[in-house]
Each structure stands twice: as structure tokens, then as C-alpha cells.
Amino acid sequence: MSEIADLLPDLVALRRDIHQNPELGFCEHRTAARIAAELRASGIEVHEGIGTTGLVGVLKGTREGTRSLGLRADMDALPIHEQTNLPWASRTPGTFHGCGHDGHVAMLLGAARVLAADPDFAGTVNFIFQPAEEGQGGARVMIEEGLFDRFPCDRVYALHNWPGLPAGTISTRPGAIMGAADKFRIALVGKGGHAAIPQDSPDAILAAASLVQQLNTIVSRAVPPYAAAVLSITEIHGGHAHNVIPAEVMVGGTVRTFDPAVQDRIEERMRAMLKGIEASFEVECALDYDRYYPATINDPQAAADALEVAATVARAELAPEPAPTSEDFSFMLQQRPGAYIWLGQGTQGHAAPLHNPHYDFNDGVMETGIRLHVALARHWLG
């Protein structure tokens, strides 16, 4: 596809412009406007304001057909201060594209240009540009606002860069590919009092210390050894003076699973432990448990098709195991069959992991990503 090579300088410049001007979830106004202008310049029908800042470009093929395909790119940045010192580094302090969504946007726009220039396919491609992937559920909001009712998709794909894979390698798998993400906050409430008279004040700090130890036994003792799960304590807040027993302590963290039954088991054990803590330490416990992203589960046939198509454009390999990180494309896969696909970008100079202040998208893999998008569309709508 020599036409892709001709587009790359412009697309790299576009990607770096988006990188320099990052926007957080549901605030991607400049980014969305830039995308809309690019789509319209290619003659693609544009629908804006879906899920606040989300938008969809609709392209119909020149051949008669009823099939439809959704290709999704996320747009939002992260609340991290960039430390790359690159010429195109973020101009917005404390906000930067540390997950490569700028690259995802550029690759999907490149595919849109290629397909619009030669729409020799049967059916419709919906280019879905989604806001607020980073923990705010932008995909869910777009769906709630009628995404798939307004823009039917018989199948849907999403492509995400993956520093852990060699540059240009494409990988996916049937079934679970990303974990469900739960977050929890536990308030342990006693009475508070003088540290020299502990017998008069239920000790919320002591209760929290015991709770942290108990929570870390759940995966090893309540989850079957053949099931994968992660429970991590990431926050403890309580106390402000050396001679005061605080009235309240907060313990927080995250749970990652791939099986709803395991997810249920972990929450059940957590709630049972809190009852024991209340009885043992004479404190009250309140649990806020939020299952904010479900597991990302690929349709087996869609994943198999993606690997078959990927092999025609680059090196393709079956992912041996899912990742415990999460992705709100999971909401789209609950509604429509499809697959989440990894595009390797791990080369010298691009080895920083996602969500790291030294990360930058590898522009060298952009052509592979565009070719994959185009090939998936032509395969499904052939």
C-alpha cells in the first residue's frame, strides 16, 4: 500500500500535534474537532457529541451490502507530567498521552483516508473515536447514548499499542485478553482517643493492619489455583499525631480478575472478613466496592479472523495469556462480537511501559496499524 507511505509524514505530524495538546476524559474538545475536520476532508460523514466528546465517521462502500464494521480508537490523555523532553512533548502541565491514544487516533484516521479514497467494499465502516477510556467508561457512555442503535456494527475491533511486543508484531487471543477492574475503599471507624489510654478507644489502625494481612490471603486461599486474580492494597490513610488514636482509617486498592465467578468470590470473602474485623476490634467497617470495568472478552471467531488478516500485513502471533490491566472496550464487546488487538511497539527508544512519564508512541509502527485496520475492513466487508 504505497498510498499509506505517502500519508505517513502528515499523520505523524498530526499525531505529534495531538500529543502536544493532550486532553483528559470527556474534555477532548480540540482533539475531537481535529478528528472531525480530518474525516470531513476525506468525504466521510461525521456525527459528533456522542458520549460528550465522542464522534463517529460513517463510510459506505460502493458495492451493495448490509454488513457493518466498527473500528474504535480512544482519544483521552492521562493526568501524568511528561518527562520525555521530546520536541513534541505535552504543552499542558500534568497531562500527557502516556498510553498512546494519540497514535491510535492517527492510525484510525489514516485507515479512514485510505478506505475513503477507494471504498471498493460492500457495507459500512463506522470509525468510532471514543472519549474517556482511562477509568471513566467513555465506551459505556457512548453505548448508553445509542452508539450501536445509531451506527449498527456486526463486528467491532480495537487496536492498542503494546510496548511488551516487538515493534510491528500483531497479537490477540480468543476469550479473555484484559482483566476486569474493580476498586475498593474500606472505612474502619472507631471512636478515637488518647494513645496512652488505648483500652478506652477501639483502635482503627490496629484493625486496618490486621485487615491488610487478611485481604492478602484471599487470592492464595479463596481463589482456585487454576484461576488468575490480583488483589493489591494501594492506599492507607489514618492518623495525624503521635499521641492520638484516630477515629477513622481508610484502606483502598484494586482487584483484577478474568472470570465473574472469581470476581464474586473475592468480593464475598472481603465482606466476610469485614464482619470478623468488626467483631474482633469493635470498629465499624463500610465497604465501597466498584466493578468499574468488566473483563475484555474476545469473540473466538473475531479473534481468529483478526490473526488471519494480521498475518497478511505483518508478523501475527497468538497471545499466550491475557493481561491483568483493564480496558473499557470491554463494554463494546459485551454488546457486539469483536476483538481487542495488540500492536507491538517495543524497540530501542520505545521501551517505556504504558502510563510511564517517559513513554511515547512509536511512529514507526503506524503504517502497520493502518494496514491492519484497512485489511480488517476489506476482509469483513468483502
UniProtKB/TrEMBL annotation:
Mn(2+) binds at C99, H101, E134, H160, H355. Its EC number is 3.5.1.32. Signal peptide: none annotated. One of its GO terms (molecular function) is hippurate hydrolase activity. Its cofactor is Mn(2+). Keywords: Hydrolase, Manganese, Metal-binding. The Mn(2+) ion enhances activity. It holds the Pfam family Peptidase_M20. One of its GO terms (biological process) is diaminopimelate biosynthetic process. PANTHER family: METALLOPEPTIDASE, PUTATIVE (AFU_ORTHOLOGUE AFUA_6G09600)-RELATED, PEPTIDASE M20 FAMILY MEMBER. This is Peptidase M20D, amidohydrolase.
